[in-house]
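Aim 2, interim progress: modelling of the adenosine-5'-diphosphate-bound target.
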Amino acid sequence: AGTRRTKLIEGIDNRVPVASEAFDSAENLTELYDSDTYGLNAMRETLPSHCYKKIREVISTGQPLDPAIADMVANGMKEWAIKRGATHYTHWFQPLNGLVAEKHDAFVSIFPGDDRLLLEFSGMQLIKGEPDASSFPNGGIRSTWEARGYTVWDATSPAFIRKDQNGSTLCIPTAFCSWTGEALDQKTPLLRSMERVSEESLAVLSSIFKENYKRISPTLGIEQEFFLIDRSFYLSRPDLITCGRTLIGAKPPKGQEMEDHYFGTMNSRIVACIQDVEWQMWKLGMPLKTRHNEVAPGQYEVAPIFERANVASDHNMLLMDVLKSTATRHGLICLLHEKPFDYVNGSGKHNNYSLSTDTGVNLLEPGSTPAQNARFILFLTAIIRAVDIHADLLRASVANPGNEHRLGANEAPPAIISIYLGQELDRVVNDIVHSTETEANGDCNGEKMSLGVGAFPPLPKDSTDRNRTSPFAFTGNKFEFRAVGSSQVVAFPCIILNTIVAESLQYIRKEIEREKTNNVAANTAFNNVIKRVLSLHQRVIFNGDGYGQEWRDIAAKRGLANMRTTPEALATLNSEKNIKLFESFNILSPIELQSRQHILYEIYVKSITIEAKSMYDMVSTLVLPAAFKHQKNVADSLNAIMPFVQGQKNLPQPTAQIAVLTDLVTAINSLSDLNVKLLAAVKATKSAANEKDHAFMLSTSVIPAMREVRRVSDHLETIIDDTIWPLPKYSEILFLR
Ligand code: ADP
Ligand code: MG
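Predicted structure of the complex, ligand included:
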């Protein structure tokens, strides 16, 4: 008779790839792409042309929507959605709990004085919703008696259809605010920050370069990493069910050291699942492009072509949802947690970031003319300055309980925020910083332009020397923020990026303008400022190996912070500098900022507390009972042979069994003791005066206590009879599918 575990494994042996409902033939892809969204194509087909032109204008410029137009758009959208089987619509928003929220309303309405059912959807219903907000995190912003919140349509992100087995729902991307106007979501400040970075970029471009555009948009290309494991393993692991990660689990004999998974041939069940996801996302208008095996066994990545930041962010939220639901349909589970398994790599979400003009010019593309180069150098300088001054914010923007296991461990970028430029660009920066030259050598709008280098080098078009250890790397024509966690809502890091870049652009523009008023020629003013700013902030550039002690020592000498834990990183959010920054750029009011910080502490406190309690339960109800059983078996076996051994002088003593028993008894005592201490440590944190103290107490007392429990539990896993061990092991979860 097999154990529960062996039966599980036999079950997996019989699984076959599941057919995808969304799957279609390649020939139909261009036709089907975007077919589940009410984007420009659908609008063109369903709206009167004057209305279509207006809404297109709203989308491309971000202007407010005229209510008369809203009614027409709502009607067009409803007709379109009903044709696709939708009975309901929902305002789809992103409250601060890291998830998406939806409340469905049917299109039905009853004609007054008549029993006739009508299908209706008005402009008002499209533009504004009023969900009860009392159960969403608000970080102390609202009292319960003013619990109402409202959602407002973000016309720049298209509405879409979510299909379910028994029907479809029209989802309308919205922002979510309190009745008193404070942002209760991720999207509102994201949209605000996009406006600010656009305004500041436009100001720089017109003031310094005499270039005029309508709008500048931050662009985001988000590489999503995740694990796919068989669902039956998941169902047998209370830690995966409750925490999304394994809390215990011994190091398997084989992990990722053979380097045989990365870019390897994909397993057929996995391909079926990912293809299913791709087709759904393509129909939803997300341009997924890349899929491959990642470094850890069981780990995968998908990446789209970049899009405007708010659309990319919405699409990533949708992708995470679709990944989870689709995996389940394929008998798999998608783990988005940053560190589901020790001993193998965790998952991140690289945020590729740049700024683009409305005409499609990438402002981080090194130019081919001196003027374009000057523009590139200015934006580059602004970002270098932003990252140096606001490294604390970037670190805070990726601080969550899961990511703490990645940052600073030797697999993900270190917790020290630095910039990788690559050798060539680094040389350019060095040349500027060390130049003494004032001779003009370039041309910018008729004016002589010098960047302080004798012969301005052609800038590298594509940097090939990629450095995987840097948290913030220049990769040819964009920056890649690699510290973002796989489960994170990217809006927050993107808000931070937009805000700090906007601030830096404004600073540099004003400095140049100030120099110019002192009768300094434009090119000299430009050179002086760029040189000064780069000299001040060059310390944040690091092109070496980000892993290991050496960089930590160098970084400390340079005065760069190394915040290893989440509470430390979150504590920086409400510094005077940061409150002022968010307020002066109208991104977050002091109250909004504080509420966010509060919620992030709260999430940390809840997650770590739940993890600690789950660990305690698993050890008490699974690990220790298994250890007792094994202990009894060894003791019984010893008992059985003792009479022979004692009677016969020439028989060897059963020293091996005695050693195992000694090891077992010692480990059991120790584990039981440590487990009790863990629970006591959790209870002790309840005395914390506030969320912040609570978070710090968990970080300094409970997390180390969990580490201790795990060490002994994992040791027991390696000595207990395999047929008694109750939990699927790493070697099974990571390799069988
Ligand atoms: P790698 O894994 O080598 O970093 P990928 O090709 O997997 O590279 O991912 C690169 C990502 O960067 C893609 O999502 C791509 O669309 C995105 N990207 C490229 N150019 C830009 C840009 N200008 N702005 C934002 N993202 C960009
Ligand atoms: Mg990458």
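Residues 439-456 have pLDDT under 50 and may be disordered. The first helix runs from residue 4 to 13.
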